[in-house]
Amino acid sequence: GYDLWLRYRPLPAAQVAAYAPEMQHLRMDVDSPARAAARDELSNALQGLLGSAPQPVDRMRPGTLVIGTPASSPWLAGLAADVDGLGDEGFLVRRMRVDGQPAIVIAANADAGLVYGTFRFLRLLQTGQSLEALDLREAPRVKLRVLNHWDDLNRYVERGYSGQSIWDWHRLPGWLDPRYTDYARANASIGINGTVLNNVNANARILTPQYLEKVRALAGVMRPYGIRVYLSARFSAPMEIGGLATSDPLDPEVQRWWKAKADEIYGLIPDFGGFLVKANSEGQPGPQDYGRSHADGANLLADALAPHGGVVMWRAFVYSEEEPDDRHKQAYNEFVPHDGEFRDNVLVQVKNGAIDFQPREPFHPLFGAMPRTPLVMEFQITKEYLGFSTHLAYKGTLYEEVLRADTRVDGEGSTVANVVDGSLHGHVLSGMAGVANIGSDRSWSGSHFDQANWYAYGRLAWDPDLSSRAIAEEWVRMTFSNDPALVAPVVGMMMDSREAVVDYTGALGLHHLMGRGHHYGPGPWVDGGPRADWTSVYYHRATGEGIGFDRTTGGSDAVSQYAPELAAVFDDPTRVPEEFLLWFHHVPWDHPMRSGQPLWDELVMRYDRGVDTVRRMRATWDALQEHVDGERHRQVAAFLAIQENEAQWWRDASIAYFQTFARRPLPAGHAPPP
Ligand code: GCU
């Protein structure tokens, strides 16, 4: 599993015969570390896929790959107009004549585009595409495509299920683990161009000179691959490591401290990306400690970074100190009043839903509601609430569902994707963040199929309109094989997998039903403790009469945070999409469902369906034994067996618990626990 989707194993002979003659030679000026990285990738990949690497030439011959920028390569000068508008990261991959010879060309305006173009070209070969009419022209839709590592300095990874942090702080900067380079390669191959190295629950020590030396070393590894490093900044750092008496954002000394810190960082890392900040949330320090707003806090850091071109990604995942009437509403209430107050180099980073990375949530009402502020989409790649790394849940479908949701803030077609890419409200800055699932495990992500979530996140950050099915297919082809007997069933498993998790953990809009603290198994009975909004009963609100959280205009009124047309749909129990029924409504146990069954029967049916889907996934995988190497096949099979067991656990525990309220018999057809 170490090679991820960059395995480069030999292609079948027919494909080698088709491709190899076209890539015997390479014409490329290798005058920068980025170009060297692209050239090395190409050589290694073609050696692996085709059995031979292209030989450098300085004159055109048949079968030459030509890689370069029209500005610096005379033989590509004719493409100047074609690369115009592609920016530094876009590229074209085209079959054309160069100096009268047929050639395959990878052209871009800058090194970053050449790296991306090279990986794009390799993907064509890896997935067995024809090169006949090759003519691709691509550029990323989202500007900042960033991974967020929730990695502590002692290598513990918060919500990480794949070993320790890959950042070996103790041995840095002296030892650069080759894994860092492979990390950079993998990310560049899917277009990721930034990485926040440390946990949002930040340790201020990351900003000390000792650690900044280590960060500088990592930045050096990432740079050729077009990846900038960012750090999570602890708001109270001026006090903790700076010796100041306050961290008040309006205090001139605090402002001077952050400016000096930014200068120090850029002195070491000229292309440093900027800061990610979690403030006044879950006990983290922040501007509200001094009676200041999120905008005051974000602008403090933004002003320090601005002279160097850095940005602040200020998180909207907040908890107010006082318990709210509905946690769903907090971020919106705290942030919308400040729309327009943030500096130009601030982005507000918003989780995909208003609660917390649940298996399904409606999109966060902040998307579309802050037209004057660029909003970063924050997805979770690690599966905190979807069975860690043992359960197979392909999150491409979740990401796609959220990105395609129509906010309706500016009429139809105001999709979340169009908010995030900046097009809806005309922002130059745009961003997407993925909470990484990467660790020191040999397979990086704790399971083979969790690599697909990293992959899908990167692909959607590049182009939020891609289909999750197409992405799954690419990934399967590169990770396993192009054999149609494998591709179709595995893609099918992946496409069903997340819905299965929704079904066996709580469908129809139920949410936050997991065990306390660890967030793994079922815990719909979780009650009591420090805050009501950390329990499960707060969210499902089951009684003898019914179940669900009333967020209608007559309830908590969270619906009104959405655009009026959508609010009207969510507010109406007959129009709300059934998958969000209990998210927005408290309804009786015999509420009639579209299937014709009462709610209780439908809920039980969904729990059963979730378990059945996992059983089917297992059977599908078992039948593929001869198509997958033994080692990977065995691990996936073992994990699916765990998943089936635990899907039953979720189902049986949840049904037994909810039945104490519903006091209704189990519907006919329900499979009793074995
Ligand atoms: C969740 C998660 C925490 C994390 C937090 C965040 O609540 O359980 O571990 O710190 O999200 O996103 O900040």
From TrEMBL:
Give the UniProt entry's GO cellular component terms: extracellular region
GO biological process per UniProt: glucuronoxylan catabolic process
Entry's EC annotation: 3.2.1.131
GO molecular function term, any single one: alpha-glucuronidase activity
Q: What class of enzyme is it?
A: hydrolase
> Where does the source fall among the domains of life?
Bacteria
Enumerate the Pfam families for this protein: Glyco_hydro_67C, Glyco_hydro_67M, Glyco_hydro_67N
The annotated active site, in chain numbering, is 282 (proton donor), 356 (proton acceptor), 384 (proton acceptor)
The chemistry this enzyme catalyses reads: Hydrolysis of (1->2)-alpha-D-(4-O-methyl)glucuronosyl links in the main chain of hardwood xylans
InterPro entries assigned: A-glucoronidase_C_sf, GH, Glyco_hydro_67_aGlcAse, Glyco_hydro_67_aGlcAse_N, Glyco_hydro_67_C, Glyco_hydro_67_cat, Hex-like_dom2
**Domain Glycosyl hydrolase family 67 catalytic stretches:** 125-444
Q: Which UniProt keywords apply?
A: Carbohydrate metabolism, Glycosidase, Hydrolase, Polysaccharide degradation, Xylan degradation
Q: Which residues form the Alpha glucuronidase N-terminal domain?
A: 4-121
Q: Which residues form the Glycosyl hydrolase family 67 C-terminal domain?
A: 446-669
Summarize the subunit comment.
Homodimer.
Family of the protein in this entry = Belongs to the glycosyl hydrolase 67 family.
Designated name of the protein? Xylan alpha-1,2-glucuronidase
